[in-house]
Amino acid sequence: MKGFASDNNAGICSEILKAISEVNSGHVVAYGDDAITKKAELRFKQTFGPESEVFFVFNGTAANVLSLKALTQSFNSVICTTSAHIYNDECGAPESLTGCKLLPIETPDGKLTPELISNYLGGRGDQHHVQAKVVSITQATELGTVYSLEEIRLVTKFAHSEGLFVHMDGARISNAAAHLNCSLKEVTADVGIDVLSFGGTKNGLMGAEAVVFLKPKITLDFKYLRKQYMQLSSKMRFIAAQFDALLTGDLWRKNALHANAMAQKLASGLSDLKAVKLCQKVQSNGVFVQIPREKIKSLQERFFFYVWNEKRSEVRWMTSYDTTEEDVDNFLKIIKEEL
Amino acid sequence: MKGFASDNNAGICSEILKAISEVNSGHVVAYGDDAITKKAELRFKQTFGPESEVFFVFNGTAANVLSLKALTQSFNSVICTTSAHIYNDECGAPESLTGCKLLPIETPDGKLTPELISNYLGGRGDQHHVQAKVVSITQATELGTVYSLEEIRLVTKFAHSEGLFVHMDGARISNAAAHLNCSLKEVTADVGIDVLSFGGTKNGLMGAEAVVFLKPKITLDFKYLRKQYMQLSSKMRFIAAQFDALLTGDLWRKNALHANAMAQKLASGLSDLKAVKLCQKVQSNGVFVQIPREKIKSLQERFFFYVWNEKRSEVRWMTSYDTTEEDVDNFLKIIKEEL
Amino acid sequence: MKGFASDNNAGICSEILKAISEVNSGHVVAYGDDAITKKAELRFKQTFGPESEVFFVFNGTAANVLSLKALTQSFNSVICTTSAHIYNDECGAPESLTGCKLLPIETPDGKLTPELISNYLGGRGDQHHVQAKVVSITQATELGTVYSLEEIRLVTKFAHSEGLFVHMDGARISNAAAHLNCSLKEVTADVGIDVLSFGGTKNGLMGAEAVVFLKPKITLDFKYLRKQYMQLSSKMRFIAAQFDALLTGDLWRKNALHANAMAQKLASGLSDLKAVKLCQKVQSNGVFVQIPREKIKSLQERFFFYVWNEKRSEVRWMTSYDTTEEDVDNFLKIIKEEL
Amino acid sequence: MKGFASDNNAGICSEILKAISEVNSGHVVAYGDDAITKKAELRFKQTFGPESEVFFVFNGTAANVLSLKALTQSFNSVICTTSAHIYNDECGAPESLTGCKLLPIETPDGKLTPELISNYLGGRGDQHHVQAKVVSITQATELGTVYSLEEIRLVTKFAHSEGLFVHMDGARISNAAAHLNCSLKEVTADVGIDVLSFGGTKNGLMGAEAVVFLKPKITLDFKYLRKQYMQLSSKMRFIAAQFDALLTGDLWRKNALHANAMAQKLASGLSDLKAVKLCQKVQSNGVFVQIPREKIKSLQERFFFYVWNEKRSEVRWMTSYDTTEEDVDNFLKIIKEEL
């Protein structure tokens, strides 16, 4: 049974599993020096521009942490929101593995702005203070909202003027680009992002993410970091093939559009329920709602999901590439029964 | 075309790919809290004993580094051979991520002995010196040799008497157990190993390794280390299913026996060639030979392989679970033509 | 000329310089294995109780960082205030060298309470979240306030009930004990503190701080951490002699009482100035006041001091063991002229 | 009573203690932004050249580790001798705090040569291998020998041609320069050294060492590293004043020449003793001799010293700036009685 707990709970998209199977014949050189990997790397260059450079890693935490590691020294700081995955959900990996302090900013919709960032730039040049070096934004945000292209442009312009890099945690970048009806390049390189964590797993891959450097000359030596931080796959062809398939015929967009549409359908179906209050705009594949505290447990028993904020009685419902209309209808029916 | 460069160059064993495919339906809880993962974990307990505890990770470097991390503090040292994977082939990950110094010991056959280890135990209790805490042995060794059960027992007994843990890098533990005609438990827990890096990738998996704690109470808190060190898979079921299949019906042994047999066949075929000198006993799936320096390049062009030691003109030929008798015959034919 | 910028700007108290000079004859064993160091260590046991154990280090950052290092693993978090020295003034050393995340809590007077702490204990047992392990409080606080013994007791009782250690940054512990008119033991060990950074430098030493473990069995192996983190002095006798002198005849209290009294005198002298608004209770040797923004610069030119909070136009005036009544009168005269 | 165990066992040279005392009046800005520190920094520029830049730290381990930290990333390696202080005597601090692997080279006299180094340069550009980045030499060596200027020049020329930096652990650089009868600049910057750990403590200081960058543009950001790694002194004037005094009127040379002469006197006095075999040339302030194993203990009881190599029954006798002719005569008398 499919649920609405997490897009990580879905399996492998059929096109992806097929791609894994198709490259499984004979021997190829390990560790990425093979034709399948080269082909996938070329697809990334076609997608993000000829100056971009991609490195495949195993999971999203690694994509984020190694992106930050490449941009910082241990005395730097990274500015992010209090809801950022790097701040909340990676067991302190960013601090522990980069040495940097994360500067968390409260924000109602999961988005940073130049004004918010500017409060965290004190102590530049003072040896007693960490030196801000990176702004990390999440697109789509952890709250299901999506930065407009203009909003990103304002952040990157301000950040660059202050000597800061901008990293994008794009675990759900496909959902954001689908929502904005733009290309992956338009929502990243073209609006000034320096380094991107490109998410595959939440969009139908078995398990693979990519660090994409969008500007030349940042990447020097990154291959050693990837290896030393235990993210170099020996049978790389199977990761590469997944990405190659995801970028073929815009499968990434097809999957993301579907997940987004299912979230819209779910939100629409909730609109006439007085007991349910939408907490955020539904712009990607997440629906954040406040529901009566006393109803949470019984509802969870029928369809498991996570409580997002205990205090506010706010819960998170996620759709994925494989959520069907029937799944949504079924879930709505149960919600209505319970609430 | 299949080669003899590395067992990492082989693809996914058909039973394993089938297992991945079979668990790919519907949603399951992410990050390992699902029935497929529980089943695989149970198989490890059945294999290594009820007190053992397993944690799946993405690759061999991670299995080794996190094993050592769990056993040490930053001021400890780890005793290993100069040929150990942790010393040579992990881009300094063990030092960088555990903080520990590795103490490398020269040994002709890749094996440690109590006598060799005893030279590296100076400075105990002296605050100026790193404090030896772990002996790490590799089974089968990087040189294709295999410790006998008695040899391991001597090492673990000595190490424990000195207050040291013993870690086994078992990237090719299946080949060793196949050679020794014993169970996985007999070659690890039963002879005193504390923590095992259990290798799957070199024996037919798509990409998965496991840290197996063989003694109770070492593992406390390891789940946080795995997450923080970026080795927690979200779609864990696909890693778990691979291991479940590998341990089902002793597939691990079948694959390893075959690879070992192919190495024996290759070595036998070389025995009447004067230009080829065997450097190590062939006890697993590696054949280490000295060949005329001037012949290396032309031979590599027909069948790629790695030079192991430039100075000694020593090369390494590896077989794998999918090497066929024809592959070996064909390779032998070419060797004879070239040498 | 003496100023009110920082208690770090004062020199060496005469008794301390004399102590350094007196132990400077002949050879003694280096690295702390000498009679002078043993004598100082014994004084700490007499001061803090027989179960306590002291380790001398070079500066306050080291005392704090190594205290936290001894209590944590990299996946832990440390709860502190946003005004804590470990959060603001150590260039990210705590995160970088312990790997831990610091959880900063806003508080008006620099003090933590059980209620404030309880908001930061989520995610216990969840592998995605850092695991809270230490509460770090500062006594006297960075804002010049002092926890009462009862306030500390409430924090330590709550923290211990939640499985947390309590660290005290005691860079100005002497000023706090002087204010509370209690012994050093009463304000630390007796109210439940686990580990103390005992400050010497701000109270007249040339440069020396101490990590004091107040409970048995925490310290195991700390000597290796101190050495590895570059805090073991070779000519230890000269650090030890400073502490021995500081604890002799309660020199620590004499110096601290005097600095506190000078702060009181300064605050009293300001009370009839309408342009000056006291921001915090004056309980140690710091006076925090709001003054007209446009007056700051001209006043700084005559007596240098630091702006504490630009936005609030708040400045910090510190007294020290060597501040004289004349210094205060002189400063008050200038303030009155300028404001 | 003065001994021959270690130059760290000596106290503070009278000129140095006087210098500390003389700068102890009034308030000065903390953390190095004061006139006394500026004056000492200027002296370093006069000593090592206008392009050099100095940073004071607390001890030798810090000077070495932070020098290496400034030159490396975590995937680099540092080439040194097996007798190097960074390899043996710093409790793994270099590995733990830089993340780098140390590549230890056996050498009979403590000196590296281009030929020895060249064996450790394999794996350049290979992501599986650490990337050699620094050669660290010790002058005078841990064995009391001294590199000639030409020997250093050969090492730096070779290292630079291979893209490596050269660090000099100059804990006893003064003894080396005194032996070579050259300036401090001639034995460092002029022969190609990139970064120097300049030792003060073993030559009469209370406790202070310096990192000296000898080439421009290496130092960018070093102030943050020093602070974060807990080596920024608040009352910096007292460290600066020691160095200022050491460099005034070549006090460094006077002290070192005397220590060296006392070592020569000791060695000469041993020359007619059959039971004593000199193991190394006496070129600085250390005398390494083989003595009958059974005599060591009784001799140690009368004059404590360290056994350097248990297996070879080799012991180390060190002289210092304050060793007198009478001390040497007395020690020789006792040696003759015992052996």
Detailed description of the structure:
The structure is a homotetramer of 339-residue chains. Helices cover 38% and strands 17% of the residues of chain A. Chain A is α/β, with parallel strands linked by helices. Chain A has 2 domains: 12-246, Type I PLP-dependent aspartate aminotransferase-like (Major domain) (Aspartate Aminotransferase, domain 2), CATH 3.40.640.10; 251-338, Alpha-Beta Complex (Aspartate Aminotransferase, domain 1). In chain A, strand 8 and strand 9 (286-290) form a beta hairpin. The first copy, chain A, is globular, with a radius of gyration of 20 Å. The first copy, chain A, starts with 13 loop residues before the first helix and ends with a helix.
Key terms:
homotetramer, 13 helices, 4-stranded antiparallel beta sheet, 7-stranded mixed beta sheet, Aspartate Aminotransferase, domain 2, alpha/beta, 339 residues
Domain module tally of chain A: 2
What structural class do helix, strand and pairing data of chain A support?
alpha/beta
Question: For the largest interface in this structure, which chains are involved and how many residues does each contribute?
Answer: A-B, 52 and 52 residues
Largest sheet of chain A: 7 strands, mixed
- What's the architecture of the largest domain in chain A in CATH terms? 3-Layer(aba) Sandwich
First-to-last CA distance of chain A = 22 Å
Shape of chain A: globular
Give the CATH topology of the largest domain in chain A. Answer: Aspartate Aminotransferase, domain 2
Order of helices and strands of chain A: HHEHEHHEHEHEHEEHHHEEHEEH
Oligomer: homotetramer
Count of DSSP-assigned helices of chain A: 13
Query: Averaged pLDDT of chain A, please?
Result: 97
Please state how the strands of the largest beta sheet of chain A are arranged side by side: 1-7-6-5-4-2-3
Regarding CATH, which class of the largest domain in chain A? Alpha Beta
